[in-house]
Design brief:
CATH topology of the largest domain in chain A: Alkaline Phosphatase, subunit A
CATH architecture of the largest domain in chain A: 3-Layer(aba) Sandwich
CATH superfamily of the largest domain in chain A: Alkaline Phosphatase, subunit A
Largest interface: A-B, 74 and 79 residues
Largest sheet of chain A: 7 strands, mixed
Strand content of chain A: 15-25%
Number of domains of chain A: 3
Helix content of chain A: 25-40%
Strand order of the largest sheet of chain A: 3-5-1-8-9-2-10
Number of helices of chain B: 28
CATH class of the largest domain in chain A: Alpha Beta
Shape of chain B: globular
Oligomer: heterodimer
Order of helices and strands of chain A: HHEHEHHEEHHHHEHHEEEEEHEEEEHHEE
Chain lengths: 537, 648
């Protein structure tokens, strides 16, 4: 029976049934030492892995952005707090993405494909998988939490095959676990069990056969044929255990998830096991569809995520708090994955040391969908490919394709260009480049006759009660407060320029004895494009 | 076919006709027809090569109706083949008429085991274990989840059988890949039973509440035995003889801890993987070579899979012990009780949706899941209301009640004002809403299934709509259009003909007219409804680009049986009166076929006749129908074949 008519049941995520139960991985920790020592016998290097974690529906920029800060001297933002402890393993990129506005589906496609029009070739994770998968049992895994968002279908996919086709995703940790580790035909223990099961059911069926009529007989014949075929298959398939002699039956199958949190943590557990047993080296995982209208009732939130993500239009302090709670939950899951990857020993280091994890979203400001200052964090040293512990703030908005091209080259994929980018993103391995060195600029303010012109770095108010308020900091003076309507916010795309120096002209009025810019008449970017083009990106 | 069936009377068969087919008809077929129909080729899916005896001929009786039709119209053999002489033609037509007037004996068919369909297997596991096997996937508004059930995700989709229903699994073969999926599902279910999430259910099996900190390895000998004893008969839907049980019990005896747990799981798995579990009927007892009542357990199973797509519940199982279900009154009481259970919704969701092709609305899922939900649940809720609330069968065609939510309320004019106010909670952008039961007072052109927006949306254009009513509601068999059908021509120069007028030119071809004179009046009568199912009043017809007022829509028509009408409302009145008998008959045929999980055969016709007559005379309800089906001869009886015979 379908549950469709039961609105309560369908609309809200199951709420948490009791305390969260972390899945034990102690059994793995024990056997990991064994595996590592076996592996160490040769001088083979540990394999490299590439993992992607996608966060839906952008961010609330003032809570995500790192304000100020230098490459090696910066403070993590409030939204980064959950994974701040991994600072030394992170490479935080700023000013990624170069589109003014972006639809949900295009921004999702671009996340791993560099450009939304790059829809005839594989996403970067798939190209890397081709290169690094070697003889692993599973070339790659494509995972998600949700069903399909069919209205804009690309919102549901980040991984695309070599013809640009959408790769089906799986959402159930138990099912993925079973596929990876419980192939009953290959597991030595289960083979024995199947063998006795086959004997057992054949005997039962034989006793039926004695009294069967013709119709029954035919049915039973078919059944016996299947039993015989299964036996033959069992004989043909050699028992296999994991690389380094990991006994798959020692891996703990995740329990059925009671809510989204358990579902996601179980999946992250399975991902870590899959990487550690070298069952696969490449995984992409979506924490939700872009545009997702999921309701995070296990966090005590009853409003749809997409509604909350439009925090400018749907402003209330309560909405902002709810949105941040959801984003913080996403960040916690990123932390969970990193912690897990660190807990596995992989030769001389941890699993994370030999992996690159790409975490991020398709858009920056989640209300007006700017695809600029997109949250992008790389984690793990990738066996020395990345120099972590740094914050790279590129002076100009960078095409995502440059990052992808860089990653491709680092993983040894011989490619002169990717999507619309032909120059790799510099600086990831620690080399210094001008591109993430912002040139010095002047800041000043001129006022008169109800007009104001101000130059300086634009930022959003960090007061959560003021989601619609921007500031430009001017040395030695009070910051200029900007409080405009949705038309100006959207028309001049203030969100696109947040974090960068601009020259802004507009009308002022006095509020509480302070000049406030209430209407924008002109906006010029000091270094970048004043009017970001590609509005339909 | 209708005419001869309604003329049937219960008399002895005429032995004279018995040999006529083999002696008289068969040689003509071999000489004149077999070349294209079963010899070198099988054209038009008509194959005479396998029809060797009168019995074979009877099994495909509807075929002969077509044969006679094409012979009478001189359509066969085709022009470029040797003609059939008049005498041979007459022989076949005479044989058909004799045969069709011969009375038919009501008889059950030979007993055939069949594999559980996907939904049946899912429901059986669910009610056996007390939990569902679902894939973990987050649910959100507008997100499409097509395979939340692990069972339906892993098992291949059942194709409809000969009956058109997916519970007719007689030809769905078992393969080793399906066997492995069963194994996976059995593993998953047992894994869950012994996990924390299955603690209550496990406790229920062994008759003891287990503490939350209970570990499966603490399973005792006694508990393992109780578990197997409780599990086996529930899974196999009948008591399991001690002899059979003792085999299972002996393998767990003397073990403890992990070894006992493993042995117990293996025994339970052996039950789930045995053919007696996922086939129905292998364990039925009976006397070979005889027509007889099915045993009590089989009868209970037939009833519960018919009404619930599920195994019998405890009450039904209790009634099997003293043969109470054989009593017609007890059976009727059980049908009424079972229809009041939420499980009976499967009648609407499986039987109703498959019969009326409502799943063809699923094409909308990708475009607009919320609209899909509104249109589909409206029809399902309506059918569920008719089926489970003892409504007259003819309310399928016209009813004062409908079910409406935000997505469909726009179709119901003033009546929507009486709906309970719905306000979207703050922060909710899109939402599917449950249907409300609504009495129709003002709504123009509504009432009954045929003008529900979902039905009008899934069938677009007069031809699709007409064909659907003809096949699904009136129960007429019509073939596919011939492959060489010419396209509908445009208007001749200088004339501005409507689609209907152009179509009438097209129809003037005799071969086309044979079906289209039946299809078209039904379909064109619905021309006042646009492709979304909106009823267009004459005043709000869309104007064409040319700014000329659109010509008035012609919804008038004449049925082949002579009745004429101006509007769909008038056609509906004809359906409710003059066409009542064929519609009720069609309803009975589909219901009986679904209940028996097979295509109807000639020997079912007396039953169909009797139930149809009864329902027509008494303005019978769906519950009456289900009760009469459950008490009918083919439902209660069977013929068990004699011991194995060798294959030739």
């Amino acid at each position: 029976m379908s549950k469709n008519w039961n609105i309560e049941r369908r609309t809200f995520l199951r709420s948490a049934a009791g305390a969260l139960v972390p899945l034990p991985f102690l059994n793995l920790m024990e056997s990991s030492a064994k595996a590592a020592s076996l592996d160490l016998a040769g001088d083979s290097k540990p394999p490299l892995r590439f993992v992607t974690l996608f966060k839906p529906n952008g961010v609330h920029p003032p809570s995500w952005n790192i304000e100020g800060g230098k490459e090696n001297d910066f403070r993590m933002s409030p939204l980064m707090a959950p994974f701040a402890k991994h600072k030394d393993d992170l490479l935080i990129l700023d000013n990624m993405g170069d589109f003014g506005f972006s639809s949900h589906s295009n921004s999702t496609r671009r996340f791993l494909s560099g450009h939304h029009q790059n829809n005839k070739s594989a996403s970067v994770d798939q190209l890397i998988a081709d290169k690094i998968s070697g003889d692993t049992a599973h070339r790659s895994l494509e995972l998600t939490t949700e069903g399909l968002f069919t209205n804009q279908i690309d919102c549901s996919y980040i991984s695309y095959d070599k013809k640009g086709g959408r790769i089906p995703r799986e959402s159930d940790p138990q099912l993925v676990f079973d596929r990876l580790f419980r192939n009953p035909m290959r597991d030595p223990n289960q083979r024995e069990e199947i063998s006795s099961l086959l004997d057992r059911v054949r005997d039962d069926a034989k006793s039926l056969q004695r009294k069967a009529g013709r119709e029954d007989q035919e049915t039973l014949e078919e059944y016996f044929t299947v039993i015989r075929e299964t036996e033959k298959r069992l004989e043909k398939m050699a028992p296999v255990s994991g690389p380094g002699g990991v006994d798959f039956s020692s891996l703990k199958r995740p329990e059925g998830a009671a809510d989204l949190n358990e579902q996601v943590e179980s999946m992250l557990d399975v991902m870590a096991m899959a990487l550690w047993t070298d069952s696969t080296r490449c995984i992409s995982y979506m924490l939700g569809n872009s545009n997702s209208r999921m309701i995070f009732d296990f966090l005590g939130i009853r409003k749809q995520h997409h509604y909350l993500s439009h925090f400018f239009r749907n402003f209330s302090r309560e909405n902002i708090d709810s949105l941040l709670k959801i984003s913080l939950w996403h960040m916690e899951k990123f932390d969970y994955l990193l912690t897990k990857l660190k807990s596995y020993k992989d030769q001389n280091g941890s699993l994370l040391d030999h992996s690159i994890v790409l975490f991020g979203s398709g858009m920056g400001h989640s209300d007006n969908h700017t695809a600029q200052r997109i949250p992008i964090v790389l984690a793990g040293k990738g066996g020395g490919m990345l120099k972590t512990g740094r914050y790279l703030r590129y002076s100009k908005n960078q095409e995502l394709g440059r990052l992808h091209l860089s990653l491709l080259q680092k993983f040894g994929v011989d490619s002169p260009s990717y999507a619309n980018s032909s120059a790799p993103l510099p600086g990831l391995d620690g080399g210094h480049f001008e591109e993430y060195q912002e040139r010095p600029f002047d800041n000043w303010v001129k006022t008169g006759k109800g007009k104001i012109t101000v130059q300086g770095r634009l930022r959003m108010s960090d007061n959560l009660d003021e989601a619609k308020v921007f500031y430009i900091d001017v040395d030695g003076k009070a910051p200029v407060r900007i409080e405009v309507n949705f038309g100006d916010f959207h028309g001049f795309n203030l969100a696109y320029h947040v974090g960068t120096p601009i020259t802004l002209t507009g009308n002022t009025s006095e509020r509480n004895g302070r000049l406030v810019l209430t209407k924008v008449t002109d906006l010029k970017s000091v270094f970048g494009k004043s009017k970001p083009g590609k509005a339909k990106g | 076919m209708r005419s001869f069936l309604s003329a049937l009377v219960f008399t002895a068969t005429l032995p004279a006709s018995l040999l006529a087919f083999e002696k008289e008809v068969r040689p003509i077929l071999e000489h004149s027809c077999l070349k294209c129909h079963g010899g070198e080729k099988v054209k038009g899916k008509v194959d005479f090569s396998k029809i060797l005896t009168e019995q074979d001929a009877d099994a495909q009786f509807e075929l002969w109706e077509t044969v006679v039709e094409v012979l009478e119209a001189n359509e066969m053999p085709p022009e470029d083949e040797p003609h059939l002489n008049a005498a041979d033609r007459k022989t076949i037509i005479d044989w058909y008429q004799r045969r069709s007037q011969a009375s038919i004996e009501a008889k059950p068919t030979v007993f055939k085991p069949r594999r559980l369909s996907g939904p049946e297997y899912r429901n059986t596991l669910r009610s056996l274990f007390g939990f569902d096997l679902e894939i973990a996937v987050a649910e959100a508004e507008q997100t499409v989840i097509t395979d939340q059930s692990l069972v339906l995700k892993l098992l291949p989709t059942d194709p409809p059988g000969n009956s058109g229903f997916i519970n007719d699994t007689h030809r769905a073969r078992l393969s080793s890949s399906i066997w492995e999926q069963y194994l996976h599902l059995s593993n998953a279910a047992l894994e869950k039973l012994f996990s924390k999430n299955g603690r209550t259910q496990l406790g229920e099996f062994i008759g003891k509440t287990l503490p939350s900190n209970w570990q499966p390895t603490a399973l005792s000998q006694d508990q393992a035995e109780r578990l197997i004893r409780a599990f086996a008969p529930r899974a196999l839907r009948r008591p399991v003889p001690e002899k059979e049980l003792s085999k299972a019990l002996s393998t767990v005896s003397g073990k403890q801890g992990a070894a006992l747990l493993a042995a117990t799981k293996l025994e339970l798995k052996a039950i789930l993987m045995s053919p007696s579990f996922f086939y129905r009927g292998l364990l039925m007892e009976g006397e070979p070579g005889k027509q007889q009542a099915v045993d009590q357990f089989e009868l209970a199973e037939r009833l519960s899979y018919f009404l619930w797509e599920d195994r019998p519940d405890e009450e039904l199982t209790r009634l099997t012990t003293d043969g109470a279900l054989s009593n017609e009154k007890t059976m009727n009481a059980q049908v009424a009780r079972m229809l009041s259970s939420p499980k009976a919704r499967s009648l609407a969701e499986s039987f109703g949706a498959q019969w009326l092709e409502i799943n063809s609305l699923d094409g909308l899922l990708g475009k607009d899941p919320i609209r899909h939900h509104a249109l589909k649940t409206q029809t399902i809720d309506f059918l569920n209301y008719l089926f489970t609330e003892n409504r007259p069968v003819m309310e399928l065609i016209d009813s004062k009640i409908t079910f409406v939510n935000q997505g469909t309320s726009g179709f119901y004019g003033k009546d929507r004002q009486r709906m309970k106010r719905y306000t979207k909670a703050k922060g909710i952008e899109r939402q599917r809403t449950p249907n409300q039961k609504l009495e129709l007072v003002h709504a123009e052109g509504r009432g009954g299934l045929l003008t529900m927006p979902g039905i009008l949306t899934m069938n677009q254009g007069p031809i699709q709509r007409g064909t659907w009513i003809l096949r699904r509601i009136l129960g007429e068999q019509i073939g596919e259009p011939p492959a060489d059908t010419p396209p509908i021509k445009g208007s001749p120069r200088g004339q501005n003909l409507s689609f209907r007028e152009r179509f009438e030119l097209h129809r003037s071809d005799v071969t086309c007219a044979r079906c289209h004179e039946k299809i078209d009046p039904l379909g064109f009568a619905l021309e006042a409804y646009d492709q979304n199912g909106q009823f267009l009043r004459a005043t709000d017809r869309p104007k064409k680009k040319s700014n000329k007022p659109a010509p008035p829509v012609d919804t008038s028509g004449k049925l082949p049986s002579g009745e004429t009408f101006e509007t769909f409302g008038e056609l509906k009145a004809i359906l409710l009166t003059k066409k009542r008998e064929p519609i009720v008959r069609n309803i009975v045929e589909h219901t009986l076929s679904y209940a028996l999980c097979r295509k109807l055969v000639r020997n079912d016709q007396p039953i169909v006749d009797a139930i149809t007559k009864n329902l027509c005379e008494n303005d019978g309800t769906w519950q009456d129908l289900f009760q009469q089906v459950a008490n009918s001869l083919p439902f209660r009886e069977t013929i068990i074949e004699t011991a194995p015979i060798s294959h030739e």
